[in-house]
């Protein structure tokens, strides 16, 4: 079981520069990818998206790719794009001929025009970038990302198993509390009749019928049986080697809540009602954790 929260980063040397990939993830019901690539490599986005889809099934991933000179001395930090420079010179000649004066260019202008770059984006083809740098860096970053998600998943599983055990204990207490409800109702009914001066001789058919109807109305044995089954399935999914268990766990949370809600409506007992409220509180804590599970 994996969490949807994680982070991974990796850098790969490439053509005198360093290509860096950062991956961060948060919870989402579906898979969403926000990919930030340098403009010259924008056509590689389908490659990145396809790569991610094979590794992750749920969550919002933010993938940031950048390249920067790896020359520590600072020499050669800026790269000159000769082809663009030649084209720019030709255009400047035309501008000078029309304007009749010199046109000065600042470093900032050259950077904005892509004639000077602080990376190797313009010096390589996208296919070469993918093959030699982006794919290897993405693979390394993804390994870190998945490892962190797996560790987070273990922590979530430990917490949820503790809470499901609490639900099991509460279920046992609910069964015990529900078993006393008919007897308590019988005593209450007889006391009220006696207070009104009506004393029934036992066995009384009317009393027996009333108690039988009441016992059937407040019986929660079916709910408790289904609750036990849901908890068993929940724990089985948590312990499963299947990585994508978030959706079935979310569904089981809904079903567990349904059984608790029905039990509460049949309670007719302050003790049983309080146990149901406590169980719902634990379930809500589990549900919050499930929202982070892939």
First CA to last CA: what distance?
7 Å
Helix content: 55-70%
Largest sheet: 4 strands, mixed
- Overall structural class, as computed from helix and strand content, comes to alpha+beta
Average pLDDT figure: 82
Overall domain count: 3
List low-confidence stretches.
72-77
Q: What proportion of the residues form beta strands (DSSP E)?
A: 5-15%
Task: Supply Rg.
Answer: 34 Å
Write down the overall geometry: rod-shaped
Total strand count, please?
6
Spatial strand sequence of the major β-sheet: 1-2-4-3
| SSE order | EEEHEEHHEHHHHHH
Q: Count of DSSP helices?
A: 9
Task: Produce the secondary structure layout.
Elements: E1 6-14, E2 17-26, E3 31-36, H1 45-53, E4 59-69, E5 79-80, H2 82-99, H3 107-112, E6 116-117, H4 126-179, H5 181-195, H6 205-217, H7 221-238, H8 246-265, H9 270-290
Parallel strand pairs: 3-4
Antiparallel strand pairs: 1-2, 2-4, 5-6
Helix pairs in contact: 4-7, 4-9, 7-8, 8-9
Descriptive tags:
two-stranded antiparallel ribbon, single chain, 294 residues, 4-stranded mixed sheet, Ribosomal Protein S5, domain 2, alpha+beta, 59% helix
Outline the structure in words.
- The protein is an alpha+beta fold.
- It has 3 domains: 6-74 and 119-149, Ribosomal Protein S5, domain 2 (2-Layer Sandwich), CATH 3.30.230; 79-117, no CATH class; 150-290.
- 59% of the residues lie in helices and 14% in strands.
- It is built from 9 helices and 6 strands.
- Strands 1-2-4-3 form a 4-stranded mixed sheet. It has a two-stranded antiparallel sheet with strand order 5-6.
- The longest helix is centred in the middle third of the chain and has 54 residues, at 126-179.
- The radius of gyration is 34 Å and the shape is rod-shaped.
- Mean pLDDT is 82; it is low at 72-77.
